[in-house]
Amino acid sequence: MNQRPYTVVLIVPTGIGAAIGGYAGDALPVVRAMAQVSDRLITHPNVMNGAQLYWPLPNALYVEGYGLDQFAAGQWGLRPVHQNRVGLVLDQAIEPELRWRHLQAADAARATLGLNLTEYMVTDAPLGVELRTAASGATWGTIQNPDSLLRAVKTLITNADAEAIAVVARFPDDLGSEALSRYRHGQGVDPLAGAEAVISHLIVRTFQIPCAHAPALSPLPLDPTLSPRSAAEELGYTFLPCVLVGLSRAPQFVLQRTSLDEIWADQVDAVVIPATACGGSAVLSFSQTSTQIITVKDNTTRLNVTAAQLGLSVQAASSYLEALGMLVAHKAGIQADALRSDIDRLSLFT
Questions:
Q1: CATH architecture of 85-248
Q2: Could you give the CA distance from residue 223 to residue 213 in angstroms, rounded to a whole number?
Q3: Which InterPro entries does the record associate with it (predicted)?
Q4: What does the angle CA 54 – CA 131 – CA 66 come to, to the nearest 5 degrees?
Q5: Model confidence over 26-54: pLDDT tens digits?
Q6: What digits encode the pLDDT tens for the residues 160-210?
Q7: What's the CATH number for 7-80+254-339?
Q8: CA Rg, the chain, in Å?
């Protein structure tokens, strides 16, 4: 009798300054390694997106954060697809030359990668993105005209048969800010990530359709001291390619069980998260199930929400390398203590 697929969820929350996964696609090496020890790996755009760099994996599912929360709660399931027809929404606030750069990136994805894109839409009003920083240092943001965004998305779904949505919003340029400088040098929080999450959450919550966002920004001046973790964002005029690639095979959301091909939360075997970011909705949902939660100490964040504070039962790993070993043992059905040099004798239950 065949065992069911070993399914892992990898979460690195957005905009919290994660040492790994808080920069420009710098968690992709973790994803690539974890995909080798799992049959199905579910993760989210913050982990997979590396601007113009990406690494498609046949067993990795690209799931937007709000959709991932709904999945973890057992409200939505995931239906894998071979290909999505991706609709592109551009913010009216994007300047003409910068708009052309993004349209050329989309055309390149069609001609070079063979992706299936619909006609694009420009919002009927500037979206008005505003950035915010919480006291913890985590980032978030707002948009002034969400209705304009929703109208454009609805048009692409209704009239152009879009099955997934890529959004490019004009974000404020802040070339001289200390926060941007620290981020570019691998020391700060991504100043854009929180606002990006607001945009994609709004669309997924409203339409139950895969979505991801790429910010439109003016190119930054050359900095020879740039951190390798931030360098992917310096390669060109747009962050759109990784979003289009991710959305092209992002699973569709289903609201009730209809097929054996679907994936639901009760099929998840393990969840891997930073040790100080245990308070997210998805983690709390999985903590109510038999899913094994693995925390990674090395992946520090600006938060301090630990498993101990929340009373969660977890396996603590010092690094992603150790977490990978835990996953291998778990998948093989081996008790981790059996891999250590000493093991306690079986005790009498009293």
A1: 3-Layer(aba) Sandwich (3.40)
A2: 25
A3: DUF3326
A4: 55
A5: 999 999 999 999 999 999 999 999 999 99
A6: 999 999 999 998 887 557 777 787 887 777 777 788 889 999 999 999 999
A7: 3.40.50
A8: 20
